[in-house]
Amino acid sequence: MSRPEMDVASKPVSEALPAHAGTAAPAGAAGTPREATGTAKALVKGLALVDLIATGGPRRLTDLVTATGVPRGTVVRLLEVLVAHEVLRADASGHYDLGPQLAVWGQGFLGRLDVRAQAADLMRELTEQTRETCFLGVRRGAQVLYIAKTDSPQAVRPAAVEGSVNPLHCTGIGKALLAHADDEVVRDYLAGPLERRTPNTIIDAQALAAELAEVRERGYAIDEIENEEGVRCVAAPVRDHGGRVVAALSVSAPAYRFPREEMPGVARRLLAAAATLSARLGHRAPQQTEEIS
C-alpha cells in the first residue's frame, strides 16, 4: 500500500443528498411547506442553489439556471443575497462555491451535539492505546454520519473527515446503529437495495438480518473489509439516558495492521469507552461480565 492515506469514508455528506429538481426543497427538510409562496418560495429556491453547489461542486451561473429551471434574473438576485451573507462565494472565474458562513453553522451544529464533546477524551485515549484511528458516528437516515475523528499517528491511516457519510450495512458504526434501530427502520433498510462496496459486503437481506442479530448478541459490530478494500473496523454502540443507541464509537485500521485475532481485544477497549460515554450521557446499565471472543 503506497498511498499515504486510505479512503475509508470518503463520501462527503452532500453526495448522499437526493438531487432536487426545479425549485423543490431539500428532501427531509423539517418544516418545509407543501406550497411555498412569496418569501418562503424564494428561500426554497435559494436553498436549492446552495444544495446543488454542495452536491456537485462549484457552478457557473448558467449551470445553476439550467439545473434549477429558475429564470436567470431570479437566480442572479438569489446569488447576490447568498454571497452578501457569505453562504456562497464567487471566484474570479465566475464559479460559485460554498461560503464561510456554512462552516460557522456546521460547527455550531456539531458543537451542540453533546455526545461529541463528551467523547473527545475517550477517543484520544483509544487512539493512544491502539495507535489507530477512532471515529464517532450517528445515524443519518440510511447512512452513518461521522461527527468526530482522532487520527492514528501512523502514516497509513483512514482519510475520512468529519461530515463524511457511508452506508449503514457495510460499516462497523453503521451496523452498531442499525442493529439497535427501531424495527420499522431496520425493516425498511433490509428492503434494499444493499450496495456492494467490496467482495465482502453483505448484500443479502437475510444474511444482514442475521449479522445484526449477532451484533446485538455480541455487543459490538465488525466491518470485515466490507466498506473499503483493505480496511477493518470494530464499533460499539453508545446509549443516552433513556437507553436509546444514539451514536457509536469505532476503531478503524488497514487490515494488514489489524488482524482478526486482535479484534476482541480492541472490542474490549471500545466497549469500555462506549460504556463510559453512555454513562456521561446519563445511561445506567449493569457492568458487562461476558467474555468477548
UniProtKB/TrEMBL annotation:
Lineage: Bacteria, Bacillati, Actinomycetota, Actinomycetes, Streptosporangiales
Organism: Actinomadura miaoliensis
Name listed for the protein in its UniProt record: IclR family transcriptional regulator
Keyword Iron: no
Residue span(s) of domain HTH iclR-type: 40-100
Low complexity bias: start-end ranges: 16-34
InterPro entries according to UniProt: GAF-like_dom_sf (IPR029016), HTH_MetabolicPath_Reg (IPR050707), Tscrpt_reg_IclR_C (IPR014757), Tscrpt_reg_IclR_N (IPR005471), WH-like_DNA-bd_sf (IPR036388), WH_DNA-bd_sf (IPR036390)
Pfam families the UniProt entry points to: HTH_IclR, IclR_C
Keywords: DNA-binding, Transcription, Transcription regulation
Region (Disordered): 1-34
Domain IclR-ED: start-end pairs: 101-283
